[in-house]
Design a protein that fits this description.
The chain has about 100 residues and is α+β, with helices and mostly antiparallel strands. The protein contains three helices and five strands.
Length: about 100
């Protein structure tokens, strides 16, 4: 059974600027996580749907962009569920860096 992981990241960019940064930087975030992720993504309005392959497993999720925050929800397959807290911490750190106001 898959394990859901949800992360909420606050930002001060506004919806359009946050969406642009995510669109241009999400693969870089995946690369910095260090799991050898291959990411496919598609937008539906203000929600990015993505799937990623890591260690022979598929991770699916969504990333909802709001005016003052972003909500990331990923479904980890059982093989990766034991690493949920590590994955969550790394994803939160890298996503926060991506959305910092510069």
């Amino acid at each position: 059974m898959a394990k859901p992981v949800t992360i909420t990241i606050s930002h001060e960019l506004g919806k359009d600027a946050a969406k642009s940064r995510i669109d241009n930087g999400f693969q870089k975030v995946g690369d910095r996580l260090g799991f050898g992720l291959t990411i496919n993504q598609r937008w539906q309005s203000d929600t990015m749907h993505f799937d990623a392959r890591a260690m022979g497993q598929t991770i699916e999720g969504t990333l909802e962009v709001h005016e003052a925050n972003v909500v990331i929800t990923i479904m980890l397959p059982m093989l990766l569920a034991g690493m949920a807290e590590t994955i969550k911490a790394k994803l939160q750190k890298e996503s926060t860096l991506l959305l910092e106001k510069k």
